[in-house]
Amino acid sequence: MSGFLRDEGANIITSDQHSTDPEGGTFFMRMEFALRIPPAEREPFAQRFAAGVGEPFGMDWRLWHVDERKRVAVLVSRYDHCLLELLWRARRGEVEGDIGIVVSNHPDLSEQVEAFGLPYHHVPVTRDTKAQAEERLLELLAGRYDLIVLARYMQILSGDFLSRVGAPVINIHHSFLPAFAGAGPYERAKERGVKLIGATAHYVTEELDAGPIIEQDVIRVSHRDDVAALVQLGADVERSVLTRAVQRHCEDRVILHGNTTVVF
Amino acid sequence: MSGFLRDEGANIITSDQHSTDPEGGTFFMRMEFALRIPPAEREPFAQRFAAGVGEPFGMDWRLWHVDERKRVAVLVSRYDHCLLELLWRARRGEVEGDIGIVVSNHPDLSEQVEAFGLPYHHVPVTRDTKAQAEERLLELLAGRYDLIVLARYMQILSGDFLSRVGAPVINIHHSFLPAFAGAGPYERAKERGVKLIGATAHYVTEELDAGPIIEQDVIRVSHRDDVAALVQLGADVERSVLTRAVQRHCEDRVILHGNTTVVF
Amino acid sequence: MSGFLRDEGANIITSDQHSTDPEGGTFFMRMEFALRIPPAEREPFAQRFAAGVGEPFGMDWRLWHVDERKRVAVLVSRYDHCLLELLWRARRGEVEGDIGIVVSNHPDLSEQVEAFGLPYHHVPVTRDTKAQAEERLLELLAGRYDLIVLARYMQILSGDFLSRVGAPVINIHHSFLPAFAGAGPYERAKERGVKLIGATAHYVTEELDAGPIIEQDVIRVSHRDDVAALVQLGADVERSVLTRAVQRHCEDRVILHGNTTVVF
Amino acid sequence: MSGFLRDEGANIITSDQHSTDPEGGTFFMRMEFALRIPPAEREPFAQRFAAGVGEPFGMDWRLWHVDERKRVAVLVSRYDHCLLELLWRARRGEVEGDIGIVVSNHPDLSEQVEAFGLPYHHVPVTRDTKAQAEERLLELLAGRYDLIVLARYMQILSGDFLSRVGAPVINIHHSFLPAFAGAGPYERAKERGVKLIGATAHYVTEELDAGPIIEQDVIRVSHRDDVAALVQLGADVERSVLTRAVQRHCEDRVILHGNTTVVF
Question: What positions of B carry a catalytic annotation?
Fold first, then answer.
């Protein structure tokens, strides 16, 4: 691979490797290199890479050009903390992606989103209209975005939706998974008397809260903190964990390995 | 309570309170006070407290004199890290208790324990001799110790043992409970791909790894850490979490509240 | 004190004490109690407290009624992270105070502040106009606010200003003081090769970055982080440290003790 | 470099790179590779490397064979915490080096060291005998050890000693440098009212506490912690920070860059 890049005139900037086992394991690699390739020559470059490196070494590989920024859609319900953190980070240029749309099953946050110059779509969901709502979401999202972020979106997406939306979906769950998967994690944390609460950002799969974990963090709590205090303390962990996961994903640092992730 | 102590001539050093609910909740309090009470006058003092404070306010209460140091027994299997940390902390005077005995189902650690001037009892356990082994443990421990610490003791104690040993039992479990209760937590953490591993010190109840949590902590891990690395990183968390739990318990800072703890 | 409050019919909610020395030290106490006192009876209540408790025990004391919310002014230059975090926290009801004004020596952040429904005053400062600028600040602030927060305000306030503004001033400094006091802390941190960078919230005194510390925190960095990365990583520490300091202050949890603080 | 190793039949296990600047900066690299080289062929291998890679690319380079374990000497005064942590880690096989000697200016810790099967040398130091003491240390250490660790050795080593001992010297300082360099850091931390205390492991240079930093960490403290409590809390940070620094050094992960370090 170094040889191929040298021959193409590229300058390697960073290189990360990981092998799951010194002998016979799966080998992962991420390389950033500097090479100006005009749009018209990108497809030929990829073909040369496939022929010279990808196929001979039996690689799964992908190529990402830094000027092709990720298009990001955010789904949210009523809580503003994860959403605003993402919008603010993106505005500061701290996310290698462009948030292009915010969709919510509630109208509450429209004004705040529009203050960032972004369109806000209200797609209500009731028990009876869930299927239509997902159709509406697919119209808005499918084929238009490279990443869907659930920033405390309190609806479960169907397997059908996940397969048709055509982009990975990152969710923030408000517990340190696998503890307290499912509903009411702060209530259950209080009941169990844990001394740390956490949050987990993971790719969404059909099985609830069971997808590959990208990032987690925790914060210390005590008997003094009631459920409302856990919600408030946890909100800070949620927004930082989700942000880091979205940043890593948009920088193409996250590689799936079965149901786990390699994060370079 | 302040009034009673003032009348007795005591000087309050620290006072902690906690109410589970501003109205109608359970009220917890821990007070340290300075008052020299000769041994012969301790029982009368306790009776005055009961009559003047405990009974009128319907309190559950206990009184601990700082010169009556906790007698601690440690049970261990083969791993030395939690045991040595406890022995070393106790020797430095950082535990308000005296470790008086170490019992193990393996002979491996006898030399290290004896270097601390402590007796080491080897009580082997096999599937067939578990009942006799528990009888032997009860001979060594029951009525002689105020606290039993399981410093990575890899045997499950029976409900019969727990009720007869006559002292609280603190265990260290090598996961952030309630995640990965039971066997093989590091293997399961690796399989699930968590980004943090942890340890939990809790009081032992008949239900495995489900007793009241005293202390927890975590450490960051990555895809680079194989199970052996998790074991090594986790060992540091285990020893510090168990030590803090034993210290808090020996300072009478831990109060049970249902299946949770108040730690002042 | 308990006796006085009982006699007045108050219900003690929380009580924190600290003594700098078991014998002869300074004693600090903070009590929250529930007692409905109509505005007209507050002055008489304070007089009874002074006569019955404050004077007999030689206390320095103050009384704060929860419905008299702190009036907070924020000064800022060009960086938005600390300011926005404060405005957002206040809007969520997580600060026991009301931000009433934002003043800046730059015009940049006016639109963002006005989106929160707050007045933004631009008071430019040059080397020659510093005295007039401080006069203008005093017109805007003196006597009108209970707390002045410097949310990355890059001007040094004169001792004259500090004595005339009539309210405590909290600053966020972008290092773990006392390391890297003064200008360019991130540059100097990079040059010294530290493995942690931090932020410090402190009360402003005439001596630069030397006032009583309220809160500090740090984040891990490595040789890979250049100065720009330190600035970005540090911004997260700055905004959380300043927020916690302002919250604690507004809840009257911070008591001065010489050049240090007791934070209950 | 990859080409050279491939031609020699080596298998690259890990590779880390760092460039201080994308253009014209200093480039750092650490590679672990698997290649069985009998002792007699190591010098020829090094010469081939120098001729084929080192000289053409103008590298500063060194080669370490994993079976040539680092020989480590530990200097200590009276505190046992850093010393015992190192001895215990080494016994567990968690340090890529062999501690071969412990030297102290006090006799106190001899028994504990000898329990690990290690020689303990007592070399007293007074103001008048400092020069002779350093001569004695040089007899014991110079040319015999690859690393000298000061595990709370409370004597300042002269520049003459440092240049003659012929091995890097790692010290643990009980503050987050550059704060509180020199004597009495915990006392000064208490006086300044900091909310975090720390420890710093660094290479020793002639200028006191000013050498390249390898590792740092901190722990939260409050107004409740007197100097004795800071000493106790800090001890835990000191032993873990020093241990990590010694581990990284012994794995050849630390590369000097001016007065800073690259830690791969």
Answer: 209
